[in-house]
Amino acid sequence: MTVSANLSPTNEEYKPVAVNALAATDPLIRDADGAFMMGCSKATFWRRVADGTVPAAIKIGGMSRWRLSDIETVIKKAEANRAPEVA
Questions:
Q1: pLDDT tens-digit series, residues 12-54
Q2: Pairing relation of β-strands 28-29 and 63-67?
Q3: Which of 21, 44, 64, 71 could form a disulfide with 40 if both were Cys (CB 3.0 to 4.6 A apart)?
Q4: Confidence category of residue 9, pLDDT binned at 50, 70, 90
Q5: DSSP string spanning 26-45?
Q6: Which among 64, 77, 76 is positioned nearest to 33, based on CA atoms?
Q7: 58: CB partners within 8 A, 6+ apart
Q8: Distance of alpha carbon 54 from alpha carbon 16, whole angstroms
């Protein structure tokens, strides 16, 4: 799935255009992936969803998915809020 048609009103000639259909700009990830990124279990990940630390899931049918950028934001906020190290 890497070629699509490019038909314009002025030029009815077929012009192939490369399209990378598999590269998402902000992919959706599973709970296991989010837990791995945060260094915790899936159960702890779901507890963080329940307490609001991690945003609610995007539901697609019976699936729960999170935007990669949302999980990265959670991690960045935690890094910003941690206590400064004492030397």
A1: 666 665 655 556 799 999 999 999 999 999 999 999 999 999 9
A2: antiparallel
A3: 44
A4: low
A5: S-EE-HHHHHHHHTS-HHHH
A6: 64
A7: 28, 64, 65, 66, 67
A8: 42
